[in-house]
Amino acid sequence: MTIQAQAPGHELPGKPTSVSRITLSRIMTAGDTNLLGTVHGGVIMKLVDDAAGAVAGRHSGGPAVTASMDEMVFLEPVRVGDLVHVKAQVNWTGRTSMEVGVRVMAERWNESTPATRVASAYLVFTAVDESGRPRPVPPVIPETERDERRRQEAQIRRTHRLARRRAIKELRDRRTAEGMLDD
Ligand SMILES: CC(C)(COP(=O)(O)OP(=O)(O)OC[C@H]1O[C@@H](n2cnc3c(N)ncnc32)[C@H](O)[C@@H]1OP(=O)(O)O)[C@@H](O)C(=O)NCCC(=O)NCCS
To answer: Which of 90, 100, 126 for a ligand 1 pocket mutation test, highest count of atoms within 8 Å of Cβ?
Structure first.
């Protein structure tokens, strides 16, 4: 594997993935449930956003805002009494944005059974300055083959996000030019 410490166009020195990787853990309680009695998806989404935000802030060395959250997948219901671990790391960096990958694991709080994967998500954070304007981020340096695979997969998602945004914008511009007005 080739480790690139400084990607072309970057002025900042690179930071290894492990420098900002974190795990956020919390026990689910009765206040976290939905009407079905399992944990509300929004509770998990908030933990995911919190963990990813901490990673983005650590990697970029300052404030970073959530620009998008995609591929949030819920694989198994989470229950009251589950100890939830939210593991997050920077997968990819652009000029001012970062993709953070998050994996959510759950285990019973009082049992020593292995944790199972219950959700995962990919979020894009943009580093911002005091005025809220995008600011450059250090390139992430993958340290393992798994980090490198995640970087390559994140690049594919980035390409698709940009292509989708562009296609939708072109469609809207064309409809507007043709005089089709939305209500
Ligand atoms: C995210 C934000 C800073 C982007 O500002 P902008 O003026 O559109 O900036 P740009 O178009 O120059 O984009 C800056 C970077 O963010 C990325 N970005 C912007 N919008 C994005 C989106 N919807 N999805 C993925 N990436 C996005 C761009 O690709 C770019 O990355 P790069 O520099 O690595 O290539 C701005 O839209 C914002 O402040 N949004 C609100 C964020 C917020 O408040 N989040 C919390 C919600 S409660």
So the answer is: 126
